[in-house]
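Hello support,

Our group uses your service weekly, and this is the first time we've seen a run hang past the timeout. The protein is Quinoprotein dehydrogenase-associated SoxYZ-like carrier. I'm not sure whether the cause is the sequence or the server load. Input pasted verbatim:
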Amino acid sequence: MTMTGCIRRLPLIALLLGIAFAAPANAEEAYDPWPGLVQDIFSNRPMNDGADVIGIEMPYRAEDAAIVPVTLRSKLSPGDARRIRSITLVIDRNPAPMAAKFELGPDANVSEISTRVRVNNYTDVHAVAELSDGQLYVSKTYVKASGGCSAPAGKNVEEAKNRLGQMRYRQFAREDAPASRVREAQIMIGHPNNSGLQMDQVTQLYIPAFFVNQLKLTQDDSPVLSMEGGISISEDPNLRFIYVSNGAKRFRAEAKDTDGHVFRNEWDVEKPGT
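Update from on-call engineer: The timeout came from a worker crash unrelated to the input. Re-ran successfully.
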């Protein structure tokens, strides 16, 4: 075959190669893990449209895949007699898709929760609210991010060890206070929250998974919010939330991690400090 003949065939060869290489990528994009996750996480329970029940906000394109902000917000109308019992956050294409499950205290009226998560691939992210009527309601958003679960830790080992379990509690001024008892607060926990997919830059070995898997927040002894966490929660777990005060003087936090450590702290509600 002449050189001219080869050149003439190049567009056809390129087209065929493009089809060959594009097919798996398109197949991957077309694959939807959500139906399988509904079966695995929620035992195939029916999912209702959550547009008027639960909102989920995340950046469409994340600046840092290891610390992607997410906000979950109740959209129930004030006259709705139902309440949200729990919210499950699912990052569909993460290695461990169930990022966190939040249980809401029956009398705390938690209306908003914000945290930071790792996102490993371009993915749908679902928020599933279980209401007091026993039904599940789902909303979703889409996030462009990759590599968040394997991204190196932001702190070195010694620094992370020195900050292990340190907690801070903050309150934020609200325009409606003190007319109402609505409060906005934040809990921050010093913890590496290793995903098990990160590599030690010196030894080139994978760092074992080590993360906060339980967190309970109470006002005095009344539950406000609890979290069952997984590897998708970012380093130094951080929860910001809106709730209704019951007049308690003390706010308490208890966290546990996968190595069995238990961390506790409490603060004067009027003087939260650090």
